[in-house]
Amino acid sequence: MKQTLQLKIGQQLTMTPQLQQAIRLLQLSSLELQTEIQQALESNLMLEVEEDHQEDDPLAADAVEPETGEDEGGIPEELPVDSNWDEIYDGTTSFSDPGPDAQGREYYDNRAASVDSLRDHLCWQAEMESFSERDLAIAKSIIDAVSDDGYLTMPLEEIQSALPPHWNVASAEMEAVLLRVQRFDPVGVAARDPQEALLIQLHNLPPETPWREEALEAVEDHLEMVAAHRFTDLARAMELEQEDLCAVIALIQTLSPHPGSRIDSGSTEYIVPDVVVVRRDDCWQVELNNETAPRLRINPYYAGLIRRADSSPENTCLRSHLQEARWLLKSLRSRNETLIKVAGAIVERQQEFFDRGEEAMRPLVLREIAESVGMHESTISRITTQKYMHSPRGTFEFKYFFSSHVQTTDGGEASATAIRARIRRLIADEDPGTPLSDSRIANQLQAEGIRVARRTVAKYRESMSIASSSERKRLG
């Protein structure tokens, strides 16, 4: 075999620890962010809390910029937040309490935030996906068969047999919908075994991810060796040097063999709003809630102790702490800017909701916000999870403002949230002696220009835990 040298030029995005930190901070809830900042304050002597609050910037600028001669490079001004999310995203999620409403909404005030079950989390994504009505029903039947740890508990053929016979659903159609569900967040959900879950996550990584192809080979052909930590045998089988094999194993260890475990439906969280919605200049605007985290700055005394060209252990430690502190401040600033950008785009499209309430909620999908702020839909999905905005109408999770739509008779669209609110109002105003049936509600909505079938009314009513007309009559 003839050995030759070749020079290749190419581009790839390297996920530096600093960039991973910036992306990870973006998906933290406010309470998690406070914990993260407290840990940083305890471990980094360069960081301190800004006490005087003289600046408007909630993070505060570096108080002193010592001449260390170092380049801050590595983290771009605009973070590529769509990059390798699943390597650092933990998948925890919560469902918002839409807050109190003056129109008699049946919610408990001041309760702790509930948390999505895995099924709720997947169904919400299915509603936001561009599924046909038929494929959406297939997707939800698949989701119903997913266990808490994320695995498909039934053979696909059995799920297929439970669908209406007259649909004549083909096996290829079931497989196609399953593949789309498996790429929901958390990636790899609805896999049939750990190997499939890991392969799905690896295939979902960008092709230029270092060691991706080698990790695919290890999982696909040598998973038993990986699981048994037989790394010497694995290196020999894959013809890899020990150092290269370590990089492959490190990539595999970022994956989750049980993707559903990332969604913890048993924990309790307390809501701290990330942004505040206020009315100014005859429109609703968004401001950052500066109380979500302490204001940070670089400690001027310790920063001033750094000496140029001094390689002593003490000076090296100071310079390392200073660089880490700068990265944290920049990452936090980027997080705040992204939150304001996404929240502002949501509020801009839901002005009528803040003016008139739920019945004025307009249909909104992830793609619309993604195109507006120049981000990917999957990124918007993650940014809107566990992020809350406080307004005069209550405190809402960002996800609350997204909903599917129903066509109206004039060719427009009505959001599912608005229709639910209208159904709730109709039932609240009904005569207890002759409560409205689902058919009568559907007819009344049709008269108002909203095309909705009786079964859809029944589905919305049941989702709001409202009893049927016969049960309401007995209660009345």
Q: Give the overall shape.
A: flat
Strand order of the largest sheet: 3-2-5-6
Number of strands: 8
Order of helices and strands: HHEHHHHHHHHHHEEEHHHHHEEEEHHHH
Uncertain segments: 54-58, 60-115
Description:
It contains 21 helices and eight strands. The protein is of the alpha+beta class and 476 residues long. Among the domains are: 17-63 and 270-398, no CATH class; 403-475, Arc Repressor Mutant, subunit A (Orthogonal Bundle). It has a four-stranded mixed β-sheet with strand order 3-2-5-6. A two-stranded antiparallel ribbon has the order 1-4. α1 packs parallel to α14 and α8 runs antiparallel to α9.
Give the tags.
alpha+beta; Arc Repressor Mutant, subunit A; 46% helix; four-stranded mixed sheet; 476 residues; flat
Give the SSE map.
Layout: H1 17-27, H2 30-43, E1 47-49, H3 85-88, H4 118-128, H5 133-144, H6 156-161, H7 171-181, H8 194-204, H9 212-221, H10 223-227, H11 231-238, H12 242-253, E2 275-280, E3 283-288, E4 296-298, H13 300-304, H14 313-349, H15 351-356, H16 366-373, H17 377-383, E5 388-391, E6 394-397, E7 405-407, E8 413-415, H18 416-428, H19 438-447, H20 454-463, H21 469-475
Helix pairs in contact: 1-14, 4-5, 5-7, 8-9, 9-12, 16-17, 19-20
Describe the structure concisely:
This protein is 46% helix and 7% strand. It has helices at 17-27, 30-43, 85-88, 118-128, 133-144, 156-161, 171-181, 194-204, 212-221, 223-227, 231-238, 242-253, 300-304, 313-349, 351-356, 366-373, 377-383, 416-428, 438-447, 454-463, 469-475; strands at 47-49, 275-280, 283-288, 296-298, 388-391, 394-397, 405-407, 413-415. The longest helix is centred in the C-terminal third of the chain and has 37 residues, at 313-349.
